[in-house]
Each structure stands twice: as C-alpha cells, then as structure tokens.
Design a protein that fits this description.
Elements: H1 2-25, H2 37-44, H3 48-60, E1 64-66, E2 73-75, H4 77-89, H5 92-95, H6 97-107, E3 110-116, E4 121-129, E5 135-138, H7 149-155, H8 160-169, H9 182-195, E6 198-201, E7 208-216, E8 222-231, H10 237-257
Helix pairs in contact: 2-3, 6-10
Length: 278
C-alpha cells in the first residue's frame, strides 16, 4: 500500500504546481494587464520566492512577457497563439456554422456566435440578410459580458470567482438601460440561469434587442453563446420570448455537435446551481 501511495506523490505535486501556474495567469485581466511579482504574490497568496521563480519560468517559455527592463509582466503572445489554435480546432465551418445559418434563415434576424476570450465575448461570426436576400457572414469585434445577451448567457453558468472578477473590472454604462449595479446584475444572472437564456433590452446598444443562450464544450463547461438580435421595434420582448426556445435549441444542438453529453457535469461548479446542466 505504501508503494502505491508514494507512486501518487509525483502526480499530486505536478497538479499543485500547475494549479499555482494557473493562479498566476488568472491574476491578469483587462484592467490589470501589467503586474509586478509582488502584486501577483499578493493576489495568489503564494510566497514571494515561489512567485518569482514561477514568473521567471513562465517568462522563459513565453506564457508571460516582461515589460522591457521594468519589473512588471503581462500575458505572453504564446497564450494568444494557443488560443487561436483552440478556435481553429473547433472547426466552426462544419460544427457550428450550419446551425447559425439555419437560425438566421428561420428568424430573418441577425445571428451571432460568440466565444469568451478571457475578458469579453469575442463575436467570431455574425450572419445577416442583405437587401438581395442573401446571407452575409462577417466578423465583428468583441462585446462586453455584462450587457449583452451572449455575455450574460455565458456569465450565468460560471463559477462565482470568475463572475466576481469580471464584473469587478468594469460595469460600464453603455446605454441608460445597462445594469451597472453588481447586486442587480447577480440577481439578473440568477434569473437567466433558471430561465435558460438571456435577454438584452437595449442594454448594449440603443434600439437593439437580443436573446442569447449558452453553448457547452465537450467537458460540459459553458464557453460560448449564440444569439438572435434585431431592432427593438421588430423584436419586442414578447417576440424575443417566442424566439427563446429556438435559440436555446440551437445552442443545445451546437453543444452536442461539439461533443457535450447531456447529464455530464460541468468541469467547474457554477455560482447559481452547481449540479445543474442544460
């Protein structure tokens, strides 16, 4: 028995080391893009000597970059390269685009496929109908998590720690309808989790309404969302509520296509219902 227990020690030590590395990388945010080793140690609770050693190692392999001769660090381009590979390996053309296209054709409204990029929702694809009746596929920029249907659909299935980190960074007022109070936003996320979808009623852009639903990866964790959006005149709340089931069904199909198995617990517990899945 002792030999078996000892055999597991190196594995346990490796897990602890990787956990420390992840803690360091997760210290960085859009607001705190540059940090000193002392600031990283304070955020992680790791000893300063351990922090300096790990930061130096992460710099040497490109996961962190030192800002010139200053004693501050930022996330390295290696992480961007790895993230780009993840996006490419999702194979959006075959796994996701057919469902987004179908959703756009059925609703006649804009559809968006969005992936969380660590700070915001990266809108990797937008499909809209042009004046000739043909579908146009375009790439557009990132969107905030706190005031878009895709962002809130993502947030509502995240652990409390990540939610707190993201909403403490900024709850910028995009329109007079944006929720800028942390307590009010948490209450909204709880309702979204119970409902299964999120609404954006002019919170990000005036005269634009959206409904979005979460997408799960093979590990069961929500990492993306799909939405339908249009003018507030064309998509009043009662029509959004009518489209919600179709959007959630599309998100469910995409999740299955990406390898999610219904009933499989997510990789991390969520803030509102730790043992609940779509």
């Amino acid at each position: 028995m002792k030999q078996s227990a000892d055999a597991g020690l190196p594995h346990q030590a490796s897990i602890k080391s990787l956990t420390k590395v992840l803690q360091i990388l997760e210290c960085f945010s859009q607001r705190d893009a540059n940090l000193t080793p002392a600031e990283i140690a304070a955020r992680t609770g790791l000893p300063r000597a351990t922090t300096h050693r790990l930061v130096s190692s992460l710099r040497d392999i490109g996961l962190l970059e030192q800002n010139g001769k200053r004693d501050t660090y930022k996330l390295g381009m290696k992480l961007f390269q790895l993230g780009s590979l993840v996006l490419q390996n999702l194979d959006l053309d075959s796994h996701v685009r057919p469902y987004a296209t179908q959703l756009q054709l059925i609703t006649g409204e804009n559809t968006h496929l969005c992936i969380f990029d660590g700070a915001q929702m990266a809108l990797v694809e937008r499909q809209a109908m042009n004046s000739s009746g043909n579908t146009m596929i375009t790439r557009i920029e990132s969107a905030p998590v706190h005031c878009t249907s895709v962002g809130k659909a993502f947030l509502a299935w995240q652990p409390a720690g990540l939610i707190n980190k993201l909403i403490s960074d900024s709850l910028a007022e995009r329109t007079p309808y944006t929720i800028t109070d942390e307590e009010a936003l948490m209450a909204e996320l709880k309702r979204i989790h119970a409902r299964g979808c999120a609404f954006d009623l002019q919170e990000n852009e005036l005269n634009v309404h959206c409904v979005g639903a979460p997408i799960r990866g093979a590990n069961g964790q929500v990492f993306a969302a799909v939405s339908v959006s249009g003018s507030a005149e064309r998509l009043p709340l009662h029509r959004l509520e009518g489209l919600a089931g179709l959007v959630m069904e599309t998100a469910h199909k995409i999740s299955l296509e990406l390898g999610w198995q219904p009933g499989k617990l997510p990789a991390a517990q969520t803030a509102f219902a730790p043992h609940t899945v779509l």
